[in-house]
Amino acid sequence: MSAQAAKKPQIGVLALQGAFIEHEKMLQSLGATCHELREKSDLAAPLDGLVLPGGESTTQKKLLSDLGMYEPLREKIADGLPVLATCAGLILLARSATRDKCPYPSFGTLPVRVRRNAYGRQLGSFSTKGEIKGLGDFPMRFIRAPFIEEAAPEVDVLARVDGNIVAVRYGQQIGLAFHPELGTDTRLHAAFLSMIAS
């Protein structure tokens, strides 16, 4: 491996289900190397960060459990591995979620309560622009999206839409209710890589 390749941030992208390829393309355009995490052995790769993509949180939880990936990933996150989580990924991180009848646990490392499908089903999807702390106006695409009903005092609220919390940071974890990977604005992914570098 060349010295230049060695300096690239190594990002694990959970690739069990959902919109993971779009995250990979955006991160690769910013100079990162992505590793698809599909089975437990993939977690042995040295990772600088982790992406938990949108998709179907119940399906992702079940697959994480069935494949023996849940506990190793939870330990990595709890130990401080930087995480960017979008939509279903936010639900995976959250300490609790309403409307969640899934028998499989979330990682529970982000002290927030999330409302699943807060905007309704597919027909409730929409796009808007919102102010993100430190970034300014940002295009936001919501697809069967959650929002955060409650966040612990130590959680930094980064954005609200119609009064609802849709973006937070807690330590090395960034949780988003929307899908930045489906647009062309790379600033949130760049901010994630900057967080890793710092």
From TrEMBL:
It catalyses: L-glutamine + H2O = L-glutamate + NH4(+); aldehydo-D-ribose 5-phosphate + D-glyceraldehyde 3-phosphate + L-glutamine = pyridoxal 5'-phosphate + L-glutamate + phosphate + 3 H2O + H(+). L-glutamine binds at residues 55-57, 116, 143-144. Its EC number is 4.3.3.6, 3.5.1.2. GO terms for cellular component: cytosol; glutaminase complex. GO terms for biological process: L-glutamine catabolic process; pyridoxal phosphate biosynthetic process; pyridoxine metabolic process. HAMAP family: PdxT. Belongs to the glutaminase PdxT/SNO family. This is Pyridoxal 5'-phosphate synthase subunit PdxT.
